[in-house]
């Protein structure tokens, strides 16, 4: 496995992704391997073009321009899975759901649920800490028109599979949008979970509990925090809060917000 100029191990084929993901011993290793992935030529070309051309309002910033790893601790009982990084969000900042309006929504909601120490995520090093939740995307590179292909989704799926496997306390997965919902089923089947037939259709508030080798795992559906949904009112803050409140309940109770003063 070669390394790129920044030192990240480079993976160039779908088979290489599967091998590299399977061999990651912890989240730190996995994150580094995700960051060096070059297995989808269309996505590589797009993310790097965006990072070079930039948006005018960010012209003085250095874009990440790489696949975006997940964020959150290994002892998380809740995972939140979205679609893919935004071209001028995660692809710019190097942090999932960070630097765009979708991130504004999800991190504010995580803060209200007691899973984050602050309601904003603007850049790496801004002081954000997550407790009891891991945030990730089904596809790790920013795609043209925010639309990964099925082949790109499948190539990327071993990263998500290994990430979830490295969360031994995982009890709940909040899935943002139908793309993530579809992407998750083969990942869970490969992990040994017994899937219902027919598979439940995606919908906001849909709740499905699966039995597997690590015990029960509940999937919760939520409309994605895209501007298309939030600007039109299809997804409101109370709707998102209700899903995350339910996730915390199913996971075993409210976490202590990181950085919060102890009571009593």
From TrEMBL:
What's an example GO BP annotation here? base-excision repair
The protein's matches in Gene3D superfamilies, at most eight in alphabetical order, are given as: Uracil-DNA glycosylase-like domain
Q: Name one GO molecular function term.
A: DNA-deoxyinosine glycosylase activity
Which residues does the UniProt record annotate as the domain Uracil-DNA glycosylase-like?
Answer: 69-244
Protein keywords: 4Fe-4S, DNA damage, DNA repair, Hydrolase, Iron, Iron-sulfur, Metal-binding
Q: Which family does it belong to?
A: Belongs to the uracil-DNA glycosylase (UDG) superfamily. Type 5 (UDGb) family.
**What is the protein named?**
Type-5 uracil-DNA glycosylase
Q: Which organism is it from?
A: Trujillonella endophytica
Organismal lineage? Bacteria, Bacillati, Actinomycetota, Actinomycetes, Geodermatophilales
């Amino acid at each position: 496995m070669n390394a790129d100029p920044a030192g990240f191990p480079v993976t160039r084929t779908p088979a290489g992704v599967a091998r590299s993901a399977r061999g990651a011993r912890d989240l730190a290793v996995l994150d580094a391997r995700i960051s060096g992935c070059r297995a989808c030529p269309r996505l590589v070309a797009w993310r790097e073009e965006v990072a070079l051309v930039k948006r005018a309002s960010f012209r003085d910033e250095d874009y990440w321009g790489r696949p975006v790893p997940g964020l959150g601790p290994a002892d998380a009982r809740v995972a939140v899975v979205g679609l893919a990084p935004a071209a001028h969000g995660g692809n710019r900042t190097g942090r999932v759901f960070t630097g765009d309006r979708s991130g504004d929504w999800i991190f504010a909601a995580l803060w209200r649920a007691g899973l984050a120490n602050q309601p904003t995520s603007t850049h790496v090093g801004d002081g954000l800490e997550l407790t009891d939740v891991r945030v990730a995307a089904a596809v790790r590179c920013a795609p043209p028109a925010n639309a990964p292909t099925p082949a790109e989704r499948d190539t990327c799926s071993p990263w998500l599979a290994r990430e979830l496997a490295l969360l031994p306390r995982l009890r709940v997965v909040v899935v943002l949008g139908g793309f993530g919902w579809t992407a998750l089923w083969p990942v869970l089947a490969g992990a040994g979970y017994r899937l219902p037939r027919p598979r439940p259709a995606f919908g906001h508030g849909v709740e499905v509990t699966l039995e597997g080798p690590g015990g029960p795992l509940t999937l919760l559906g939520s409309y994605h925090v895209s501007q298309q949904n939030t600007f039109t009112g299809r997804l409101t803050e109370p709707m998102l809060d209700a899903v995350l409140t339910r996730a915390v309940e199913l996971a075993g109770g409210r976490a202590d917000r990181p950085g919060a003063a102890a009571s009593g």
